[in-house]
């Protein structure tokens, strides 16, 4: 079934720009693994959303067997699964 054509917008209130990036961290409970999404954002909001994600990750309490990597930045691709998104360490390095 094809995805509906609705736009994916940047998370911060009042921005309204199309989202270009996914700020997320790899999470696992030992059985299941996925990307934990902190934000979908445009280039202009990326620095603030990455900083918020980093702070949120630092505040996370994990249970036994759970892992949560540091947040990363991924190119947002319509209809693509998380495991196929392109990670952007170059953008993360610019913001760190």
Quickly list its features:
single chain, about 100 residues, alpha+beta, 4 strands, about 20% helix, about 25% strand, globular
What's the β-strand tally? 4
Shape: globular
Indicate the multimeric state.
single chain
Percent range of helical residues: 10-25%
Q: How many structural domains can be distinguished in the coordinates?
A: 1
Q: Number of DSSP helices?
A: 2
Description:
- The chain has 96 residues and is of the alpha+beta class.
- It has one domain (21-95).
- The protein contains 2 helices and 4 strands; from the N terminus they run E-E-H-E-E-H.
- The protein has helices at residues 46-58, 89-95; strands spanning 21-28, 33-41, 67-68, 72-75.
- Strands 1, 2, 3 and 4 form a 4-stranded antiparallel sheet that branches.
- It is globular and about 40 Å long.
- The termini are far apart.
- The mean pLDDT is 92.
């Amino acid at each position: 079934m094809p995805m509906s054509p609705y736009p994916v917008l940047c998370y911060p209130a009042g921005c309204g720009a199309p989202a270009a990036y996914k700020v997320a961290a790899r999470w696992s409970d030992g059985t299941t693994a996925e990307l934990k999404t902190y934000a979908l954002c445009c280039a202009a909001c990326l620095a603030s959303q990455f900083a918020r994600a980093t702070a949120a990750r630092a505040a996370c309490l994990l249970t036994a067997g759970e892992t949560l990597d540091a947040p990363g930045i991924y190119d947002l691709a319509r209809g693509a699964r998380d495991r196929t998104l392109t990670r952007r360490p170059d953008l993360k390095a610019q913001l760190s």
